[in-house]
Amino acid sequence: MRAYTRGLPTPDVTAFVRAALPAPPARVLEVGAGGGGLAAALAGAGYEVVAIDPAADTPAVRAVALHELDEPRASFAAAVAVVSLHHVQPLEESFRRLAELVRPGGVLAIDEIDVERLDERAARWWLEHSGHEAEPGEVVANLRGHLHSLARMREVLGAWFALGEPVRGAYMHRWEVPPGLREAEERLIAAGELPAVGVRLVGIRRP
Questions:
Q1: What's the pLDDT tens digit per position in 158-171?
Q2: Around Cβ 171, how many Cβ atoms within 10 Å?
Q3: Domain architecture of the chain: domains with CATH
């Protein structure tokens, strides 16, 4: 469920992250960096970025899992996770390591899919635009079966981070569909015809 097109973050993702981060220069950890597009944008804005992804295939992103990252404790002023925390394994150990790496008072910016809000209406809309062949119910069951729920992620992270209220919005237009569908999805959400599957929240590392 990568929220990137051709390795680049969508503009609204970049804007959300930049608004949440402390001013540069600050050391930022990006968890699940994909092709490194967001990390490059943040580095260009003056941040010192360490980008990691177990499946990385570019020198700009370290091919390491979060729980195995070898960095000093409290060495990051902020961490960013764009549609990546829902599949980190092992969850508890990975989140504990994340908390160790972010200094007290540091920021955690999360952009996610709330898989529990995904329903057959959203899956059907996505299938119509993505060209994939499947039954909507199969898509929902598959994703709910292997992704961490938002509730579970918040439960574990809450031991170390004071998490703000989630801000919900469109998401399906970011997932393997042609560009330009964001407004259409937002109109359907506003009309009550689709659920708001996307969610963003910001946390502060507890002392």
A1: 999 999 999 999 99
A2: 28
A3: 4-115+148-177+196-205 (3.40.50.150)
